[in-house]
Amino acid sequence: MLQKGLVIRSTGSWYDIRNEDGHVYQGRLKGKFKIKGLKVTNPIAVGDRVQFEVEDVTENTAVILDIDPRENYIIRQSVHKTAHGHILAANIDQAVMLATLTLPRTSLGFIDRFLVTAEAFRIPTTVVFNKTDILNDEGLGYQQEIMDMYESIGYSCLATSATEGDGVEAFRQLLDHKITLLSGHSGVGKSSLVNAVAPGLNLRTNEVSTFANKGVHTTTFAEMFELAPETFIIDTPGIKELGLVDMAKEEISHYFPEMRDRLNQCRFNNCLHVNEPGCAVKEAVGEGNIAESRYMSYLSMLDGGDNRR
Ligand SMILES: Nc1nc2c(ncn2[C@@H]2O[C@H](COP(=O)(O)OP(=O)(O)OP(=O)(O)O)[C@@H](O)[C@H]2O)c(=O)[nH]1
Ligand SMILES: [Zn+2]
Fold first, then answer.
1. b/e map 71-92, b = 16+ CB within 10 Å
2. 157 C-alpha vs ligand 1 centroid, how far in Å?
3. Which ligand has an atom closest to residue 183 CA?
4. Which residue numbers delimit the CP-type G domain (predicted)?
5. Which fold has domain 249-302?
6. Which ipTM was obtained for this model?
7. 278 is known to lie in a ligand binding site
8. CB count, 10 Å around CB of 103?
């Protein structure tokens, strides 16, 4: 009997498939799968919705017969076959960029790079600022300015303290019934926040990004955790390096929403907004309608600069 399932873990050729009752089977693909127009090293990724058949009830194995069309996916160039892509995750409802202004400091450049990449993959993102409890009044004021800046562009923001419980309920509601990609530097409190909203899960602090820390060569492993019914967070190796995947220079400003809105006002339609005359983006920066920090991030990305740190 054909069943619908969600791929919650991928370990190479085996996939953990969760059916609609929450039962998890170990599944494999039957035969060779070709996905139209896409050269990939992995035909199935975490987040894929599949049709499968139970193969062996005692062994708990299953055979995957079909993959539903994807809403979106995160792909990066394969480490092994450069002409191919490697799909890190599919069907992501949203991303959370977890940042801290201090201990560790998350730079605005890092946040912007993530936001640009998420725009390119069409994944709506909320920026969450954790560890608000360790900020003094000046720090809180600065954090508010940054949140106002991102909200004016259209990104929702949230301030939390995983240890004090501030904003934790709002964070729980943000995740509710969604598949969320959780990203952020090591030590910003990803595990702590997840544990705060789902104590039963009891993630070891550190566990959320154990795989990610191993670096680019372990990209086959990705995993989804069910926090509450139909509520998942996805931990994907390589997300920290979520860089500008194959992005043409002309394309970058399209993923800055506040620039995108002004592109057709530049004098030249191939304007890169650096020092061209009649550039509407530069004008908006000058007038304070585009944040200086965002423009700096843009220039750095244009330059091929790496501001992941
Ligand atoms: N003061 C304060 N400390 C926090 C807060 N959230 C987390 N921490 C602490 O920060 C440290 C790192 O937290 P983790 O939850 O392990 O961070 P992580 O993002 O999961 O880190 P990795 O697993 O390395 O990616 C721990 O010592 C936490 O107790 C917070 O809101 N306030
Ligand atoms: Zn321009």
1. ebbbbbebeeeeeebbbbbbbb
2. 19
3. 1
4. 80-242
5. Ribonucleotide Reductase Protein R1; domain 1 (1.10.40)
6. 0.98
7. no
8. 10
